[in-house]
Each structure stands twice: as structure tokens, then as C-alpha cells.
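Action item from last week, closing it out:
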Amino acid sequence: MNLELLKTLCHLPGVSGREDAVRDYLRGMAQPVADRIETDAMGNLMVFRKGRHSDKTLMLAAHMDEVGVIITGITGDGYLKFDFVGGVDRRVVLGKQVLVGEKELPGIIGMKAFHLSPNREEIPPVSALYLDIGAKSREEAEQLVTPGEIGVMIGEPVQLGGDLLKAKAIDDRLGCAVLAELMTGETPAADTWFVFTTQEEVGTRGVGPAVWRIQPDAAIVVEGTTAADLPGVPEHKTICHVGKGTVLPFMDRGTVYDRKLREKALAVAARHGIPTQTKQMIAGGTDASVIQRSAGAVPVIGIAAALRNIHSPASIGSISDFNAVYWLTKLMMTEIFKENEEE
């Protein structure tokens, strides 16, 4: 897959509800090749390409949004109070840089000094955190920031060793990069909608109108998923492993993935030498949960890459896994509506 495209998409700001920069970039990629481009009231970008065979419709989905912060208030001495947009691990945010609002105002997440904290071993609640933007008073801060503005965490893409990539928002700019590359490639086998969804990180809110609009015959959700393959984590709690292939989950907390489609994906992967693994714990959830329950119960599978430090400014994934996700998704676009060989 195109690694530079992934790095570019990871760099763009796109906190839930503010996915404009990502959507604009992807729309620009789609315009030369699309048969139709639509954006709905939720901000989902839906790109249609007519297939070589038009008896069935496939939907590929990846979410554009990332976790971040939202400004909730300003203190008397000019600090910003905030809450998280999406699920963020509070242990990893202290000292991290955030860009606030359309002005991309830099701020640093902080809290009371360590030697003044009464419970030093406890993870601080979000109420104990603040953003320092350099303002000296409430009045000065109010000239710069308004409550309700979004903040995006900074995490520039960096390659680690020969196969790992560190960046913010790999979940799910990886899926966006895979869909974008496939969208701009050869004519798909079936009529295909490439759907870049909004607000997945705050409860899979965006995808519903898109799937009801399209009413596909099958869907593939391309995602990043938690690995947890770290020192001190027992093997049975690692969930999945970075560098051991694409993840084909059988179930998570929102979806029981279609068994026949999953078996087909496993067979296709085996036939083409693509390494696969599954999730060893029932955890997480994706847009698949909404897709499965709407428009007549759409059969759906997930194709994912394992990520360490997910929902942080420093997610880490394997480039070889990213390539595996790309190739399996590409192959499934052709194979998904074929009858099984034994039939």
C-alpha cells in the first residue's frame, strides 16, 4: 500500500465531528475517478464506482475521525478546561501537545505538580487536567479560544526500525488510506461504494445514514484494533499481535461478524499467502455494529491491523500488516460475491 498516503492522512486533523480536512483531502482524490460523490448531513463521504458487474453492491467503510479533546471552560487564570472526545487513556496525555481550534493554537496538557498531588499513584481524573496555552488571564484566553472548540493531539509519523510506523490516528486513517488507494485504482468487480464515515469514536454515530442510503448486499469495514502485545501482558490477554498479519475478528462487543464471509476471507488469504490472526478477547467495536443491524441486516466482515497504544498520539503498527490489510481487502472486493468453489 501507499505508505506516504497513510502518513499524510495521519497528519491531518480530524477529531470526531470536525473531519473536514480529511474529507476534503479524500474528496480531492475521488473526483477524477468517481461516478458519483455524495456527502450526507452527518458528513460521511460516499464515493461510488460502477463495477464490471452490477447485479450486487459492495460497501467498503473506514472512519475518518480520531480521538481528541473539546474545550469546556476557561479558568480565572487563563487555563483551559476540557474533556475527551472518544476513549482516551488518561495515563498517556500528560505533557502532550494539542492544537486547539481552526487557529491551531498550541497548548500543553498539564496538572498539579507531582509533589503537591495527594494521590500520586492514582490516574488523574480529567477534571484534574488543564491546557496551558500561555494566557495569563481569563480575558486573554477568551480572546483566543471559545468553549466548544476541538483540540487535536500531535503525533508526527515516524518509522521505527524497518517495519513499524508510529503516528496519531492510524485508527482509522489506515482504513481511509486503503479505501482511497483502492478507490483510485482499477474498475471494481462489483458496484462499490467507498464510504469514509464520521463520529465512529464517539459511538459509531456517523455510519447509519450512509448504510441506509446505500443498502449494500455486503460490507467490509477496514480498521485498526487494539494489540496489547506488550511486556507484562499475559499471552491470553494480548488480544492480537503487531507484525503477525491482518486481523479477522469473529466477534467484538458490537458485532458478530458474518461467518461465511469471514471463512471466505480466511480462504482467500490462505490461497494468496496473506498472514492472518484473530482477536483473542471479545473487545472493542466498530462501524460494523451499525451496518449489521440496518437496511435489512447487511452481512459484514472486519479486516484490521493490530495497533499498540491505540487512541493515543503514538499508535504503533506494522507496515507489513498494513500491506496485508490492503491486499486482502483488494482481493475480497473481487471474491466476496463469488460462489464458494465447492458449490
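Closing note: The first helix runs from residue 3 to 11.
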